[in-house]
Amino acid sequence: MAVSAASMAGVFAERLGPDRLIIDPGALSTAAIDGHTPRFIVRPASIDHVAAVLAIAWDENLAVVPRGAGTALGLGAPPSRVDVVLDLTGLDHVLEDNPDDLTVSVEAGMTAGGLAERLAGRRQWLPMDPPGWRRRTLGGMIATNAAGPLRARYGALRDLVLGVRFVQADGVVTWGGARVVKSVTGYDVPKLMVGALGTLGVLCELTLRLQPMPEAEQTWLAPFTSVEAAQAFAARVVNSPLQPMRLELLNEAALRVCQAPSAPFGVAVAIGSAHPAVREQGEALAVLASGEKVRVAAVGEDLWTRYDAALTPAEDEVILRIGSLPSRLADTVEVIERAFPAAERAVLITGCASLGSLRVAITGADVETVKQLVEEMRGLTADFGGAVVVESAPTNVRAAFDPWGPVEPAALGLMRAIKQEFDARGVLNPGRFVGGL
Amino acid sequence: MPLTPAIVQELLRILGADGLVTTPEGRMVYEADMHTFYKGAPDAVALPRTTAQVQAVVKLCRRESLAVVPRGSGTGLIGGAMAPKGGVMVSVNRMDGVLEVDLPNRCAVVQPGLINLWLTKAIGDRGYFFAPDPSSQMVSSIGGNVATNAGGPHCLKYGVTTNHVLGLEIVTGTGNLVRVGGKVVDGPGYDLTGVVVGSEGTFGIVTAITVRVLHTPEAVKTALATFASITEASEAVSEIIASGIVPAALEMLDAAIISAINASIGKIYPDAADAVLLIELDGPRAEVEAQAERVAIICRRHGAVSVSVAADEMERALLWKGRKEAAGAVGRLTSSYLLQDAVVPRSKLPQIMREMKAIAARHRVIIANVFHAGDGNLHPLICYDDRSAEDLERAKQANEELLAACIALGGSVTGEHGVGLDKAKNLPLQYGEADLNFMFRLRRVFDPAGLMNPDKLLPSHPACGEGFRPKRPVLPAGAWI
After folding, report:
1. pTM
2. Domain of B205?
3. What domains lie within chain A, and their CATH numbers?
4. Chain B nearest-CA residue for A402
5. Which residue of A has its CA nearest to B191?
6. Are B439 and A103 in contact (CB < 8 Å)?
7. Taking 70 as the threshold, does the pLDDT of residue A65 lie above it?
8. Which pLDDT value is given to residue A1?
9. Residue B257 located in a structural domain
10. What value of ipTM does the predicted structure carry?
11. Which residues of chain A does B449 touch, with a Cβ-Cβ cutoff of 8 Å?
């Protein structure tokens, strides 16, 4: 039955305490998601609060948008409706810390920067560095499957999330996975939640696998006049016993914003290991580079600090995540560069060369140009199973075309069935995920 | 539903005369996996060669409401690839091809029946390998590895099967052919590849697998550290991990296993040891050298009697031979054993080894240990005499107590073998009703009729049944009306 906003506010306030509910019109309009102003902002302090909010939302058929730091709201299609913004930043506690096991359990609203600070003293880390990661919440990074250059060595978040406690759309608190580094007990529910954009449940608690930080680290930059040569060099590195932490391709514009030596293309290789091993791998790297007739130059680790700062998403930017292949980097990059002639170039191309996963940041392009590029890229990558996802963009861009791109019909059918099973009422992030889920 | 002659005819039409086993003696071969305690022969065994055949068989079974039990090499340890309710077994052994090797993109596409080790053999000379290495890798199929999300000694550094699977082609319980994931990472949508891996054939039958392959490391160093006490060896393991070293493998063998191996395979490990650690480091040469020194120091600090490094490939192979053939050697020790696969946090190893000793003494059983110490994945073999019901009873009690102790330390019921029929009853130790219900509903999405590998993975528990409603927060009903 329909319930008035005022009485509903009373329920939220009663369940969570009045200071955890925001209904001030100014605040609500600031929290608008793609033009949808929420009726409530709720700031839970515990998983029980989250459960209470979702139980009410389920019964009253309210649409809920879970929000961490709010830095990734430009991912996905504009929602079909928004009633409640669930601000999870209050869930920011460490629940269980096991330094000797290299695991930690935290609440999902904790920021990656907050966790890093806690871990740095013991030389451990969660090696996940999407630009702007310090401000981002861990839950948000997992829900959006965020990744950065460190992925070259440490894998994606799917490889680092061991256990999750989440609240289903109807308010049921659920746990999946384990607190130990190895477990095959039951289905791998955490995998289902990584990258699901909170459409199957709201992540509240996370058990994470940590990694030891390498004893020493050094980055080298190899300059190239063509993307083909950069690709060939990256292929040599991949096809060698070297174990880079990062193997990042950067185009000229990206090198510039990172204040790196200028070149049409660069491949930045970070090696982390014991001191003598870093030195030896650096020597091996120089040999590989000479095969492409270039010289690698050692650059300071602050390259990655500048990279992080320069590539942190801005609101008006369009950021594309392109799933290509290491062997197809050159043609993928050429299509992008062709779409934006040099004169007006404000296109930053970066990405993990050993995975073929590229990130394209475009400033000041009109919707039509972006749309054409995405369509062309989807055409190009389709024949090898690639994908182009709009990782972040202003509302009008994401409203103009499908920001996710096509999913194989049979697979999409299964995804629909899963969403239908766990959120038949479309409470969680309705309309934002693939296929309008 | 019974397997009528008409259905047999239809199966023969799909599979051809040499593609179906229906004789009692033929079917008996398939009545158990390596957990021979559980037996159940299928009514027929399909031996498909193509994905289309798999799909046709599943569709037929769906129409006729027949259980479908997928099987690879049958080397599982959990009562997984057997048919407690009869039905049609789909054995994928004949789908054993390498469909594509794409080294520039570090991946390969294989059929599910391909033997694990064959993949590494196919790409090894080009400097690549497939990392998941269950001890059964000479005979187990990659499809089976995917079904159980198999691990192995080197998963400590490289991760288990799921970390190496990029994409799958799967015939779901509805008979639909679905392709998920692929060579390219980060396709949009739910990570269906991730949930299908480890689903033990309860979602469907995997018919093609895209796997990641890795470049062979530059250097490998294998060391054997001998300890006079297994507690000290456990402390050494915990400190190696805590120090930030990630060995490729870190395996523990206790006195009972050592003597069994030495008696059956030849003297490989020091007889007098209470425990040995088999430690393998790999990676860039200088890194391996530096870590080997630190590992040796840690071992000695925890009372290692000796630390020796394999001088050449032959010595190294010998050290591993003992480890890989340990399970077979146990026959010297006991006629039968219960095998556990529980996991504890790595820092809790010394504690669980002490508790295990107490449990063994209390129930008067021998517990032999050979396990993946580095990730806390225990493989206690609880020995019993199968001619004595009382012996078995004591072994069972010790087994349950040990499992409970592992869970109490924050552990997991199974680290790499899987659940199957054997451990389904133990899931409630680790998961609550809401968690089990979530899994049950997930299964129903892939297999609405409940025909895929029935009775496996999930327990018979109200939460895993239709109509169950997990507890929701209690709301102040009517408060705002």
Report:
1. 0.97
2. 98-215
3. 5-89 (3.30.43.10), 92-212 (3.30.465.10), 216-308 (3.30.70.2190), 313-400 (3.30.70.600)
4. B188
5. A192
6. no
7. yes
8. 42
9. yes
10. 0.97
11. none
